[in-house]
Design goal:
Helices cover 40% and strands 16% of the residues. It contains 12 helices and 11 strands. It has a 7-stranded parallel sheet, sandwiched between helices.
């Protein structure tokens, strides 16, 4: 009998890429999202779409009914994510879910006070089998979003990343690793840091974008304060802005420069490159 998978955060960057991989593997999939009405158009008819809101316990049972395994996506850029997600995690464990794959983030083990590390520790303390994925910054953060809009409008990237390097990873690679983890028991008890195969400065990124766009795109290193002013135009809460500022500080300090081999080991191939990603979206760079 096919495993039955609940994908939380199903309309997010990873969730919407993960579901087709799971279907291709012959698994049954339920998509959990806060807005099931609009989400139904994103997935094929065999995917059951249900409401799941971490802040509303009355949505938990319908989401977890029949689920053997759960892909657990914490609320992104949320400093109190552990407070939102641990009640759902406890509920899932109480329903005898067999395996939880947690989407965390790179650099969590050394930062025990951060929300995602608290979620990791809570999961590790359960009797349920688990796998933890710690991806680096996604290539897809460059497009779609405010960075690609900035590139098209101004021909420059203004970010507080200094001259730090980052081993960007493609969301599709992360989703494929998650699908492998959810498809059997080989990855029980494992934690994987998922990165691309090269560590790039933002100057490197600008050069790759320039060649793809056929025009000069510059990188301008700005202060945290200037970055906060840029984000005033985005629909983000102040607490979310704080998390994003810390993310770029981690790049500035080269905490996101390391290259790990876990992705290649799990998938049996090299990670997608930023060059490939940029060429696939050449029209986005104006």
């Amino acid at each position: 009998m096919a495993e039955k998978i609940l994908v939380t955060g199903a309309t997010g960057k990873v969730g919407r890429e993960l579901i087709p991989f799971l279907l291709d593997a012959g698994l049954e999939v339920k998509a959990g999202t806060r807005d099931p009405g609009s989400a139904r158009t994103l997935f094929s008819p065999e995917v059951e779409v249900v409401e799941l809101n971490y802040n509303r316990t009355e949505t938990y049972d319908a989401a977890l009914t029949w689920a053997d395994r759960v892909f657990l996506m914490p609320p992104p850029f949320t400093p109190d994510a552990h407070e939102a997600i641990t009640p759902f995690l406890d509920w899932a464990v109480s329903t005898k879910v067999e395996h939880v794959v947690l989407l965390s983030a790179m650099s969590m083990p050394e930062l025990d006070d951060l929300a995602l590390r608290k979620v990791e520790r809570h999961l590790e303390a359960q009797d349920t089998a688990h796998t933890i994925l710690r991806p680096n910054l996604y290539m897809q953060n460059f497009h779609p979003g405010f960075i690609s809009r900035q590139i098209r409008a101004e021909g420059r990237i203004r970010l507080p990343a200094g001259r730090g390097r980052v081993s960007l990873v493609d969301v599709r690679d992360v989703a494929e690793v998650a699908a492998r983890a959810l498809s059997g028991n080989r990855h029980f008890g494992r934690s994987y840091t998922l990165t691309g195969g090269e560590a790039l400065t933002l100057e490197d990124v600008a050069g790759i974008l320039s060649r793809a766009a056929g025009r000069e795109i510059r990188y301008e290193a700005i202060s945290d304060e200037a970055f906060r002013e840029l984000l005033d135009a985005e629909p983000w809460r102040p607490a979310e802005v704080d998390v994003v500022v810390e993310l770029f500080r981690s790049i500035r300090n080269d905490w996101r420069a390391p290259i790990h081999s876990a992705l290649e080991r799990v998938l049996g191939r090299a990670p997608r490159t930023f060059q490939e990603f940029v060429e696939e979206h050449a029209e986005a760079w104006g």
